[in-house]
Known about the structure:
Layout: H1 2-14, E1 16-25, E2 29-30, E3 34-44, E4 47-54, E5 57-58, E6 66-70, E7 80-86, E8 89-95, E9 99-107, E10 112-115, E11 120-123, E12 125-129, E13 133-138, E14 144-146, E15 150-153, E16 162-170, E17 174-185, E18 189-190, E19 195-198, E20 204-211, E21 218-223, E22 226-228, E23 231-233, E24 236-242, E25 247-253, E26 264-271, E27 274-284, H2 285-339, H3 352-372, H4 375-394, H5 443-451
Parallel strand pairs: 2-9, 10-17, 19-27
Antiparallel strand pairs: 1-3, 3-6, 4-5, 4-7, 7-8, 9-12, 11-15, 13-14, 13-16, 16-17, 18-20, 20-25, 21-22, 21-26, 23-24, 24-25, 26-27
Amino acid sequence: xxxxxxxxxxxxxxxxxxxxxxxxxxxxxxxxxxxxxxxxxxxxxxxxxxxxxxxxxxxxxxxxxxxxxxxxxxxxxxxxxxxxxxxxxxxxxxxxxxxxxxxxxxxxxxxxxxxxxxxxxxxxxxxxxxxxxxxxxxxxxxxxxxxxxxxxxxxxxxxxxxxxxxxxxxxxxxxxxxxxxxxxxxxxxxxxxxxxxxxxxxxxxxxxxxxxxxxxxxxxxxxxxxxxxxxxxxxxxxxxxxxxxxxxxxxxxxxxxxxxxxxxxxxxxxxxxxxxxxxxxxxxxxxxxxxxxxxxxxxxxxxxxxxxxxxxxxxxxxxxxxxxxxxxxxxxxxxxxxxxxxxxxxxxxxxxxxxxxxxxxxxxxxxxxxxxxxxxxxxxxxxxxxxxxxxxxxxxxxxxxxxxxxxxxxxxxxxxxxxxxxxxxxxxxxxxxxxxxxxxxxxxxxxxxxxx
Length: 452
């Protein structure tokens, strides 16, 4: 009896509604990629039905324990649910998907129209995964005004009017932005060229550009004793045109005379917040063109003059540099000749017999050549010979056995040094104050020079 009771109790315990587990693969996943949901269940009695839903809405095409689909950003906050049913009941389990997606706008910002001096508040809400960054900036400016969903501008001025951008960035995933406008009610603002041009004798126009919110109630042109808001008066006509950027008022003058170029024109605009005025002058276009042509004509000779002056200066500098270089080189050569003159003096070793023979041969030749030359050349040679003898005395102790040259004193007794006598050609008188002329020539060099 107890055995039957135990078997019955064990069987009752095994009967239960389904135990369900829901898995999602892969996770995280980028938007527009495929994921697979798997709904595993343990049930006794057996499972009779699987039902899938998204945010409470039945997915009719899914009826097994698995569901595969392409996910978008909505799967991040709209859960997928799996419901498993058997004879004892049903079990439902839900899960969201960790989807990476770029910024999605949750609250659209609205453009604003505010009065001068009041506050302007913009709201801009984004959602993104992973966490995003919000930046508020004015269009055309790189200044960050806010990193929050809300942008508040205190005590606005007309300069604050313009386009504002709310930008959201999800790192390495994507970015998005929205643009809104801020319009500030205030007095008109006139922005026109203060000097405009026209041709003498032709029809001319002066334009006045007006930005105004609200639009101007009145626009008037005035000059001298005249005031004109619209229509035609004599040679003058006023026309006003509205554009997306503002209002353009044009004063047209027919048959322009010289006095029109001396007149000051006032453009004034009014609205409920105030007024603005601009002073405009008219300039003769022909005069400016002639002046420009004259300046262009005069600029050519000036360029030529400058070019010639620069060229002459460069040429002068090159010439001076050449002269200085030549003088320096010449001075160095002269200095080198004087310094090396003593080093060029050598006394050649000869035997007494050959020296006497050479003297007998060279002496008549030198004498004959000297007789043929002018008195000036003879005097120059005598000076060089005299200097050479004095320099040879300074080198009496010179001795170098390796090249065949010895001191003059060594052979003083043998009279081996050749001597040239030019007494027959020597002039009768020599000035006592003549300076010594340096020379680096030996007897042989002098002979060679005279023979040449």
